[in-house]
Amino acid sequence: MSILGVESVVFGVEDVETCARFWRDFGLVEISCAADEAVFEVQSGSKVIVWHGDDGRLPPRNFAGNGIRLTYWGVDTQESLDRLVAGIETMCEVSRHADGSVIFQAPDGQHLGLRVWAKRRVLSCPDPVNAPDNIKRLNQHRQWRQKAIPKTINHVVFFSPDYVGSYEFYRDKLGFRYSDHSKGIGIFARSDGTFEHHSIFWVNSDLPFAPDGHAFMHIAFGVDDIDEVMLGANIMEKKGWKNTSMNASGGISRHRISSAIYYYVDNPAGGEAEYHADTDYLDDNWVPRAWDFKFGSLLWANNALPIFRGDDIPWDMSFDAEEKSFDPYRKGKPSPDVERLAALTKDDEHAI
Ligand SMILES: [Fe+2]
User: Fold this and answer.
1) What residues form DSSP beta bridges with 263?
2) Of 226, 255, 315, 324, which has the highest C-beta tally within 10 A?
3) Measured in angstroms, how far is the CA atom of residue 217 from the centroid of ligand 1?
4) What is the mean pLDDT of the chain?
């Protein structure tokens, strides 16, 4: 094991104060808040750091607007970090910093950091679920919460101009594991020292709704269960934060790929923030799969989009341990799904 997950993310934003209020309302724990910097954390110790977009500490801007400008992956030991950096240095220029972190730019444009991370254990105790004649709670109510308190950063999502290439860099240089491929849409992968279905998802920036090239899309936080997801959603709505992707994402929904329940909130720091529960957990016995994007996107949704309904959705999923599904989707190749993918609209962005 070496990479334990997202250690911290650094957002570059226009308005630090508004973003700090957002993360406070979202349920993150405030560490500090000043005019030019706000820092929050979750139980695992992962941090959300907010700086002004033109802050000199940030790497050069490589996409328009707000969003994550630097993603730090947490590494278990200094030895692991040194080994990873030795491999990366053959391909990328790296800079070493006084705090022990190493920063570099991946070939797809993403600015990345590595640092040794004393990841903390988290406490989770989801309520058992009852079903007829399968009673797991008798004379016992579900947990009463006052607010959602995210415990982990489960994943980050970026648009990529070459999503197969992005994955292959992470696989070869950072030891990431292939989880699933939504054909024409993107690849899900996890770092080797964590077990959520994915720690990162690269979305094809050639899609009709996507920006040109590398950009930030969203960040997902792990909570216990559907109750905590919806409590968080209700509180965010009450505090005036919007979910303009409500129709697009279908409101609360469950993906078929990853099985996760999700709910997005528009994030003033860029893209969306996601409450995320009941995801699949994987280890190295997992066999990756390649999916038709319509089939893989939704198991159900509060308001599924037309493109994800209907009788024309093929039950198309195949095991893909050899990564044979990638080839038609490499940069510069005409995608076999080009016409179907072209039918996607901005509204479909959040159901994929
Ligand atoms: Fe997500």
Assistant:
1) 275
2) 255
3) 9
4) 94
